[in-house]
């Protein structure tokens, strides 16, 4: 028999990780830890023009869930489920997965008009042969962790807070190519960055301190969008102090993916003072590894 957890899981933040840990603990020795999720949150379907964007694309969400110990990820189609009654959802979606435990968050609601509650899930699940665990929220510095608050932090350049709530540095997946616009400062080597996928929450425009495990530390520039659906423009300016020869990326393959983690937001504009501060922060990070 399997242990199931259900939710959006956008970002796999600190609260999601608690759900995943309980799910792994509750699986039987021959069972699986299964994550039931959705490609987009419900607000995307009900108010698509107001939806701020995803933290991570579904493939990255699944990769992170599996890295934490989830055995199987099932992506549910929200439009086909939204009109089910709570009992239909349990019978038709959860039942075939043979659950012994179903682990959900404190604010989990399901079924038509969100009429399914955790109390209903406990009672109806008991009749169907599984137990229900309701996991309380996680707080960081007195604030409840949620994907919504993390999106707010990213939109406002509060990357340190976003990283704390994610319980990991925010990551951007994408490819690199030679920049045709030159460099922001003569001492920096610059590349254009194209993020994989689309539909992400927009980052606050400006310069970030970032790091790639192969290329080292860099200034990462997120430019503002002029149109809502326009893809954002990114560039990477390598600092080069923690790699012997950063210019080897002149031969970079534009098809090779590079993952960048954002360490801090520095400034909306770049000058020598910001550059030196970035180098100082990067040197400290290298020395602490």
Q: Care to describe what's here?
A:
The relative contact order is 0.13. The chain has helices at residues 14-26, 42-46, 58-67, 78-81, 86-94, 118-128, 147-155, 159-166, 272-288; strands at 2-6, 33-38, 72-76, 99-105, 131-135, 139-140, 143-144, 170-178, 189-195, 206-212, 216-222, 234-238, 257-267. Helix 1 links the parallel strand 1 (2-6) and strand 2 (33-38). Helices cover 30% and strands 27% of the residues. It has 289 residues and is α/β, with parallel strands linked by helices. The chain has two domains: 2-144, 3-Layer(aba) Sandwich (Rossmann fold), CATH 3.40.50; 169-288, Elongation Factor Tu (Ef-tu), domain 3, CATH 2.40.30.30. The chain contains nine helices and 13 strands. The chain has a six-stranded antiparallel beta barrel. The radius of gyration is 22 Å and the shape is elongated.
Shape: elongated
Q: Note the total helix count.
A: 9
Number of strands: 13
Helix-strand string: EHEHHEHHEHEEEHHEEEEEEH
**Integer-rounded radius of gyration:** 22 Å
The CATH class designation of the largest domain is Alpha Beta
CATH architecture of the largest domain: 3-Layer(aba) Sandwich
| Spatial strand order of the main sheet | 8-9-12-11-10-13
Looking at how many chains there are and whether they match, the oligomeric state comes to: single chain
Distance between the termini: 42 Å
In CATH terms, what is the fold-level topology of the largest domain? Rossmann fold
Tell me about the biggest sheet? 6 strands, antiparallel, barrel
Measured by DSSP, the beta-strand proportion falls in: 25-35%
SS-based class: alpha/beta
| Tally of separate domains | 2
CATH homologous group name of the largest domain: HUPs
Q: Tell me roughly what share of residues is in helical segments.
A: 25-40%
Average predicted local confidence, pLDDT: 88
> Which blocks of ≥5 consecutive residues have pLDDT under 50?
none
